[in-house]
Design brief:
This protein is mostly helical and 138 residues long. The chain has one domain. The protein is built from six helices and no strands.
């Protein structure tokens, strides 16, 4: 059990750090990060570049915190994977840089499939009081 929890924690921390780094970088040096948004997205949305980058950075921070919390890691891993794959697909012209996002997306998908107590739903035995959760069958 501890081995699985440890591997889950390492994956979650590693992925969360990449999201936090990008978000903080976007806030501190927006001119270095706005170019990763496709031009059509920047034209389609009626937001300024700084607002768009700020919103995206806020979402990245929320995903990082969600990953770090360990709460419902299947969904946080899946959303992180889709975001990373989206970044890759919309920046294929820079694949020599965004290829790392493919590895991070696959690591995020591992959180969806990893066997961990954090991914194990509670099973109800029909006891409405909540005392029946995770009781062995007798």
């Amino acid at each position: 059990m501890w081995k699985t929890l440890g591997s889950s924690l390492l994956l979650r921390v590693g992925i969360a750090l990449s999201f936090l780094y990008a978000a903080i970088g976007g806030f501190l040096h927006p001119e270095n990060w706005i170019g990763w948004f496709p031009a059509w997205v920047r034209e389609l949305l009626p937001l300024g570049d700084h607002t768009l980058l700020g919103l995206f950075g806020s979402v990245e921070i929320l995903i990082a915190l969600w990953l770090l919390s360990g709460w419902n890691i299947r969904w946080s891993g899946l959303i992180a994977a889709f975001m990373l794959l989206g970044i890759t697909v919309f920046n294929l012209g820079s694949f020599d840089i965004v290829f790392r996002d493919v590895a991070l997306a696959l690591a995020s998908l591992e959180l969806v499939f990893i066997k961990s107590p954090l991914n194990t739903p509670r099973v109800s035995t029909g006891d409405e009081s909540g005392e029946g959760f995770n009781k062995p069958n007798t």
